[in-house]
Amino acid sequence: MTPVIVFLSGSRRGTTLRLGGERLCIGTDPACEINIPLDTEPLPLPHHATLTRRGDTYEITTSSGAEVWVNGESVEHLVLASGDVLEIGRDGALLLFRVSDANNEPYKSIPEVFADCLECTRAEEGMVRKASAFAAGMPRELVTNTSRMFRSLMILALLSLTAATVILATRSARLQDRLADEILRVEGLSTLVATAQDQGLSSEDLAEVAQEIRATRDRVDSLEALSNVSARVVAAAAHATLFLQGSFQFLGPGTGRPLRMMLGRDGDPLANAFGLPALSLEGDGPLLEIFVTGTGFVASAEGLVVTNRHVAIPWEFNDAASGILGSGFVAEWTRFVGYLPGIDAPFELELMVAAEDADLAVLKAVGMSGRLPFVPLADTSPAAGDAIIVMGYPLGLRALLARSDEDFVAGLRTEGGDDLFAQAARISLAGFMQPLATRGIVGQVTRARVVYDAETTSGGSGGPVLDVSGRVVAVNTAILTEFGGSNLGVPADRVRALLDLAEGN
Length: 505
Description:
By secondary structure, this protein is an alpha+beta fold. The protein has helices at about 110-120, 125-145, 150-200, 205-225, 230-240, 310, 320-325, 395-400, 405-415, 420-430, 490-505; strands spanning about 1-5, 15-20, 25, 35, 50-55, 55-60, 70, 75, 75-80, 85-90, 95-100, 240-250, 260, 280, 290-300, 305, 330-340, 345-355, 360-365, 385-390, 435-445, 450, 465, 470-480, 485-490. The strands form five sheets. Strands 2-1-11-10-7-8 form a six-stranded antiparallel β-sheet, covered by helices on one side. A six-stranded antiparallel β-barrel has the order 12-15-16-19-18-17. A six-stranded antiparallel barrel has the order 20-21-22-25-24-23. Strand 7 (about 70) and strand 8 form a beta hairpin. Helix 4 (about 205-225) packs across helix 8 (about 395-400) and helix 4 packs antiparallel against helix 9. The longest helix has about 50 residues, at about 150-200. The termini are far apart. The relative contact order is 0.10.
């Protein structure tokens, strides 16, 4: 059997000392075999007590003037038993005497660790300090004084716990990301549904348009009068300036099925948590269609149409669509058509090429090659102070109706129906499909943009910016609302380069 001393307090707390020899000194003297650290309070004598071998154990003898307490009782001579707790001085350093199997390392069992930690707290005052001492000592004892096998198992358990925590944290982070994506997608869908519902011109909207026609016509007429440009230039460009109208949908990831509104048994749309129509890739409910309008112009005898990239690929620039596109959905046109003054029926449009470094795109007017008037591109850039003319269809269908007459609007209300494509077809057939022309002055010209003050607004994107000779010097792109402020156009040389690329394809 091997006797050992376990330090239960002070800076050596938790360490174990094997005892050997017939006579051992306990004290603060560095020569003492059982050396008590100088940070112990109260500080023992340099030679405070002596241990004398008695078979497999030791007998403790206190020095003159010293006190030793064993298991809470003051002693002068005592043969120690395994498990005795020694106080070297009243409330002094705590030592545990233990006899271990000589064939094994003097490691502690779990009950011994628990008991030692409890013993260490005996000298602390107050439950909070006792609990803190126990909580601090228990892990240290487990790590330093238990068997190698137990420590290995504990380390393995800690590693497993850490790995499990990391895995759970990773999964939680992924779940949070998926939840955030889902929220973004749902919010985006809700916004798109609201947008889709707001785009139609209902009977009530037509009534409002009828009431506003006189005032709106006066405003439009004043803008055209303000332009004071050559009637020949405006007329020629108007016959090559398109009203663009389209609708797009979203197809599910890997399925190709379009998003539809869910219908109840009564045929009415079901509502989601946002109070808007619920959507699904199943069923046969109405498609979720997003309608857009814009402006373009015929730029070649082959029927190539120039417009903005954000008009030709509108879902790329729609914040509400970003959530659903990020979830793997794909957007595609359900229909994309163009109208020209003097041509009653619309014609289909197809995207040929879109610029990566400018807000430009080239479309093909299907089946119209050689049949459409076009406006030529200018060979030189405009200069600051030059007069320009902007052609376009700002405010889409509503502005076209405002420029029609009350009888026509009344007829639309009588016929009923709020199909936007049908409304545009009727406007064209009635001869009201005419672009608006406004005049402005060039303020700045760079390689990337032309800045001017001609009045326009949403829906006018993609229209031609003409010089007074009727040649295109830029394509209208960045516009400000409410018919005011400076507007931006992409220079004609960028347009020419994209046309060359389209013709080469």
